[in-house]
Amino acid sequence: MAETTGPAADVLPGSDMNAPLLEVEDLRVEFAVRGRRIPAVRGVNFALEQGKTLAVVGESGSGKSVTSQAIMGILDSPPGFVTGGEVRLRGVDLLQQDEETRRTVRGNHIAIVFQDALSALNPVWSVGFQLGELYRVHRGAGRRAAEQKAIELLDQVGIPDAKNRVGHYPHQFSGGMRQRVMIAMALALDPEVLIADEPTTALDVTVQAQIMRLLRRIQDERNMGLILITHDLGVVADVADDVAVMYAGQIVERANIHDVFARPAHPYTKALLRAIPRVDAVGRELEVIPGLPPNPAALPSGCPFHPRCRAADPERCGDEEPPDRQAAEGHLARCHFAEEVYRDER
Amino acid sequence: MNAETGQASAAPEPVLQATGVVKHFPVQRGVVFKRTVGNVRAVDGVDLELHAGRTLGVVGESGCGKSTLAKLLVGLEPPTSGSIKVLGQEIGGLSARRIRPVRRDVQLVFQDPYTSLNPRMTVGDIVGEPFEIHTDVVPRRERGAAVKELLDMVGLSPDHVNRYPHQFSGGQRQRIGIARALALRPRVLVCDEPVSALDVSIQGQVINLLERLQDELGLAYVFIAHDLSVVRHIADEVAVMYLGKVVERGAGAEIYGGPRHPYTQALLSAVPVPDPALRGHREEIVLQGDVPSPIDPPSGCRFRTRCWKAAERCAEEVPGLDEGGGAHEAACFYAEGRDVTRAVK
Description:
The complex is a heterodimer of chains A (346) and B (345). Chain A is α/β, with parallel strands linked by helices and 346 residues long. Chain A has 13 helices and 12 strands. Chain A has an 8-stranded mixed sheet with strand order 6-7-8-3-9-10-12-11, with helices on both faces. A 4-stranded antiparallel sheet of chain A has the order 2-1-4-5. Chain B has 345 residues and is an alpha/beta fold. Chain B has one domain (5-105, 186-330): P-loop containing nucleotide triphosphate hydrolases (Rossmann fold), CATH 3.40.50. Chain B contains 11 helices and 11 strands. Chains A and B meet through α7, α8, α9, α10 and α11 of A and α7, α8, α9 and α10 of B.
């Protein structure tokens, strides 16, 4: 296991080790586009415990990546603005911190792995230099010590012949190996929370299996909290403890993984689960979700899913925005009829 | 090595047939004095057969040659050697001009609906462009109506002929691509990753559309994809490719229910199943390393460098698809059926 070099990661001032690892409360993000404010994240709530994996599932435009960028504090601003809510790491609201504090939080406490490793790595520096940079800048390590740490990290993420590979450039690695380098970089400063934003989307299925296995192993070893952002319900079923399903900038369903898959309480989740072809089932006709995900600039009135929903009550769902309802213990869904959908009566 | 020449005469003539198709791309060095230092063996001896109204799924990971195969099958790339027959007519060695009338019968649906439509052309012009090239298909006066009929057929409003691609969503753009491919009333559609750029809720819509069109028009599909779940859903027969070769081939139910080639087994076991109850109860075959370079593929069986069954023989001899004589074809000396998608533990 990796131990940090030099002084230990700064303890965040004011943090309380008994508070939950990461809590997001009523997070709101808007984008200013041509003088208009377009809501991308509209009041997201979730909590992440140490050693647990929360999967955030949603289709493109549902706000899942923007949520992770807001948590990391790497939102492109302008045009993006956090307009409300709290992101508490061990009780400290990150949104209230100055940029310098947030910078130490990034990497030291929360790190992120992006989908596209090739564009996230700098092509003109060797992988070892980029990894070592973290130790030189954050820990004041010398060149040689930093390189030594880089080799250790590459070895930990399963890059064969790390000693040699440390001097190679990003283009000399395959897609899967590059993603391993990205993971190594995210782990370098021993964060407590790792956000993986579609970490395997660009990869082939056998490589995806390798990377997911690596993430699971590392999370176990380090007892990190992992937020896995993905559109792939198969991957979610394989690794997550809890699931948050996003639609139109909101979490529309949140529960334990087994509950969500066995007894979805939101019609969107239910429809999504039936719309995916499965490798272990033949000839099942795909149930289709009609229509398109809504345009965030012109959200439907009432429940944003109601125009595509089979269970919708045309009046109530078109007028009234549904609150979070508890369909069962610890199982929340933003639907007027959550209890009935949960019991499969609607 | 072609195991089906024997039975081909009994069955009706295939609409699309590839025999021993090879495509090598030269790798060149030097700027002024170019010299060829090797070949990327993208497709290296592939046999396929497709009958009217059927769907052949071609699966494999990036770099296995499936997209090159798609281009060969529609005549966009000439093969280095081997034969490709469309409705019995050879297209392999035809010149660009001679190939044109044949190409009418096989059309391509592209992966990326964002870059495969010209942003400066209206939807009507895009869908109607094939008529400008193949002028004898629909008389000029009737083209407008034909375009509207095509749009209607793929579930788009005929009133949208004057809109531009950017005014449509990804799924709608893919429908435009399908309408364009159908314009010349082809017998075969080669779909190269047609749904992989789309969101899950939209994928189903496009897959259902393709299935409906197949029923209505009797089309045959070559459906190329890396998503094995989608292929299982749509394909009657499946061919699994690895490094330019087909390593296993057979009816969909056989390939998915009892894959015989170690690579297919590894591939299928790696596909995540959306059911948390199966977690830890499925066989997990995690392959080591990466796919070797197609410039210098391993001798003998190309999969042997990553195979847990590899023996000396695998380095010396190239296994044919007829090895072992099991339920369906698998190019492995030690082929053995094994169910890897369902719970086993």
